[in-house]
Design a protein that fits this description.
Elements lengths: L2 H19 L4 H4 L10 H21 L12 H12 L4 H20 L21 H7 L2 H18 L2
Helix pairs in contact: 1-7, 3-4, 3-5
Length: 158
């Protein structure tokens, strides 16, 4: 994997996600129940949290970040939901765009060996591959939520 391919994949998959989101009106983005109790807005905030954490990883070249990483996945995602529940949709969307730009910029700054060598990141387990960690918290994460969003579109009629 090289940075150019990673960025291309990330931008392509993000465009697919955004095309899907563009089919939903603002009112329907706020209705809970898309994935468990999450609304589309909550899913955007959720994805953004993981991408922001990835930006921190890349900026610091270290496995650092929120204390939420020490919680179970269920507890972490519940805390992310609670922290973003009362935010305005526009604020969540603006933050998502900014974090995505930051993410692309950080990936562009990586040396080729940093994409494949976990020892280049302080605290990263040696069995991890950095580019795969990036993918799992970005475009692979989109794949986890796209089916729920598609079902929501069919259910709510946009």
């Amino acid at each position: 994997m090289d940075a150019k391919t990673l960025i291309h994949t990330l931008k392509t998959e993000r465009a697919h996600l955004e095309m899907l989101l563009s089919q939903i009106n603002e009112e329907n983005m706020l209705i809970a129940g898309v994935a468990g109790e999450m609304s589309v807005k909550d899913i955007i905030a959720h994805i953004t949290w993981y991408e922001r954490e990835t930006v921190g990883l890349l900026q610091q070249r270290a496995l650092v970040g929120s204390d939420l990483w020490y919680r179970s996945l269920e507890e972490r995602n519940g805390a992310i939901l609670a922290a973003n529940r009362h935010r305005q949709l526009n604020d969540v969307q603006v933050e998502a765009e900014k974090v995505f730009i930051d993410l692309i910029n950080e990936i562009e700054s990586l040396l080729p060996e940093e994409l494949v060598d976990p020892t280049r990141f302080q605290g990263m387990p040696t069995e991890w591959v950095p580019w795969q960690a990036i993918a799992s918290n970005t475009y692979d994460h989109y794949y986890q939520h796209i089916p729920d969003i598609k079902r929501w579109i069919e259910h709510c009629g946009r």
